[in-house]
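Appendix B. Chain record.
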Amino acid sequence: MIRKKTLKKTSKALVSLLLVLAVMVSLVPFNLTVSAEESEEAAEGSQIYAFLNYIDMSRPADSSDGIAKKADYNLELVFKNENVKDSNYFAGPYTDFADTEFVTTTYKFDTSGRPNPSWNYDQWNPNSKTSKDVLAPWIKDASRKYKDKDGKIQTNVGDNIRSVNFKNKIAPKSIAGWFYYCRYLAKFKNFENLDTSKC
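Structure tokens predicted for this chain:
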């Protein structure tokens, strides 16, 4: 008899507890929608766009001959899934690069300990070893000229790239040579948006 009463009380308490929990759960708002950012599919191939943007807008204007001083440029390389220029736009868009393996360099040291760069051309047709074919397009942009410290006209803007921003999710087939010549690159932003599973 005592067991039955205890069992009855326990059952009532358990039912009451379940009812209280059910009411509490119904009061908590659940968001079952997936945000656009979470559902964003990684852009591939020609859907990937690269831009060069000024890091700050306090740059001096280009000189009258259209050739700027190298020190004037402080750039960020931005990868996006749309062909839209930002307000701090410098150059681009660069397209059709995401499936290409660009040049990389290995260094061998000579007897005096100095490094000698060796370009790796293995993945290209030996008849087309031009800088246009083997360098990422934002590294050697002929439309962006500057004078180096000796007054020579150059087009390599790699030294002016200080940061890289993966603004949207991208899935290239190769990133080989993307940052070649970027000797002063110091920062990567939104690195989680770079999907290298296809590389």
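Further analysis of this model is presented in Appendix C.
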